[in-house]
Amino acid sequence: MGQILSNPIVEKHIESSKDEFTAFGLCDMQGWRMSMEDAHITQLNIGDGSTSKDHIAFYSIFDGHGGSTVSQFCGEKCTSILQKEPNFIKGDLKQCLIDLYLSTDKELLKEPAIRNDHSGCTATSILVSKLQNLVVCANAGDSRTVLSTNGIAKALSYDHKPTLASEKSRIVAAGGFVEMDRVNGNLALSRAIGDFEFKSNDELSPEEQIVTCVPDVMEHSLDYSKDDFVILACDGIWDCLTSQECVDLVNYGISKGDMTLADISSRIIDVCCAPTTEGTGIGCDNMSIVIVALLKENESEDEWFTRIRNKKYQVNETFATKRRKIFNYFQFPENDPNNDDDDKNPVFDVTLRKVSPEEASRDAEKKRISGPVDLLSLEAILGASGIEITTNGENGDGNGAPIITGSALSEMLASLSNAAAGETEPEDFDPEDDDKLQEIK
């Protein structure tokens, strides 16, 4: 499950906007994790006339692991990288998304500070084209994109897990292995941007590496009489909800008549945030979700809401009842059955309550002590001579022989610090190093 806080960070980042083609509401939250490693893109129109005559909306969710370096780079740079792709300018939306993921890996490797970074991120992205009447989705990893068509969830992506036969065959052919459902016993997903330690075989193409950034791409021709909205979210949401359950919750929020897309996104995160860390582990991840409304020609966002409400989809569970069902091991306070999804409902106490200064201070100290080791900073503090651990000496004076020095200890610390939130596990620890540490008094 990775390192977690004693109290979740429940402050939310919320975005919403609209034009004449799409509207969206986004929410993300750090939650129980030690840091926020998700990033996103919400661009209403990247075909601005300079590179394309089309009106193209671009939405993407990046779920980082092993740090936020790669995901933040993607959130900041992928739009400009995409707009420069020749196939984007030509209007080949399927190929340009594949090119985007490959080009992003190449751009990352040009950054000296990133080249040896151990982080990576999953990515799920859509381009919505007005001219071509298409939604095109690219996905690498276990974030997910879902289309609601007549209230039914249609998959626009499929999760890439190491246990899938097609993924495992590539991993093994590239010299890797799957252990404990993880790539080389480490990574819980089999496709990602970054993660260059799994892409080091110069004799293999990017498609053939142990972990590849090459996405699966799906196209869907829009039918506005049936197609209502698209959901993009990280696995923190999908660990708690099936695709259909998430579509149903969005439709429930729409049916209420007083919630925006951002409100609905925020409430779904409330539903999925674990009430405690003592359960199964689900609900303790960073969470990001964006809901994209597909607007008809000359249709306003308000008119879209009215159109979807008039379809009167049958939804049997409220936000609160779904939350109780997901975390059925937890004894939630009783609530007024006539007020099942109101902000004051005690079922949402975890995400609505304010953390005291004392709790915040404890978590800050825990993060300071338990956070990943920055070896560059550590070496700067200790000096160019490096690090040395010695035995206590025969006379107990601390003047014993050195047992771990310089790079050996650095490598050991790096191995221990590579345990990232949820997706990665520590690399194998040398038993000889462990025996040596036991000698230290």
Automatic annotation (TrEMBL):
<feature type="region of interest" description="Disordered">
    <location>
        <begin position="415"/>
        <end position="441"/>
    </location>
</feature>
<dbReference type="GO" id="GO:1904289">
    <property type="term" value="P:regulation of mitotic DNA damage checkpoint"/>
</dbReference>
<feature type="domain" description="PPM-type phosphatase">
    <location>
        <begin position="23"/>
        <end position="294"/>
    </location>
</feature>
<dbReference type="GO" id="GO:0010508">
    <property type="term" value="P:positive regulation of autophagy"/>
</dbReference>
<dbReference type="InterPro" id="IPR036457">
    <property type="entry name" value="PPM-type-like_dom_sf"/>
</dbReference>
<dbReference type="InterPro" id="IPR015655">
    <property type="entry name" value="PP2C"/>
</dbReference>
<keyword id="KW-0378">Hydrolase</keyword>
<dbReference type="InterPro" id="IPR001932">
    <property type="entry name" value="PPM-type_phosphatase-like_dom"/>
</dbReference>
<keyword id="KW-0904">Protein phosphatase</keyword>
<dbReference type="GO" id="GO:1903753">
    <property type="term" value="P:negative regulation of p38MAPK cascade"/>
</dbReference>
<dbReference type="GO" id="GO:0004722">
    <property type="term" value="F:protein serine/threonine phosphatase activity"/>
</dbReference>
<dbReference type="GO" id="GO:0046872">
    <property type="term" value="F:metal ion binding"/>
</dbReference>
<dbReference type="Pfam" id="PF00481">
    <property type="entry name" value="PP2C"/>
</dbReference>
<keyword id="KW-0464">Manganese</keyword>
<comment type="similarity">
    <text>Belongs to the PP2C family.</text>
</comment>
<feature type="compositionally biased region" description="Acidic residues">
    <location>
        <begin position="424"/>
        <end position="441"/>
    </location>
</feature>
<protein>
    <recommendedName>
        <fullName>protein-serine/threonine phosphatase</fullName>
        <ecNumber>3.1.3.16</ecNumber>
    </recommendedName>
</protein>
<dbReference type="InterPro" id="IPR000222">
    <property type="entry name" value="PP2C_BS"/>
</dbReference>
<keyword id="KW-0479">Metal-binding</keyword>
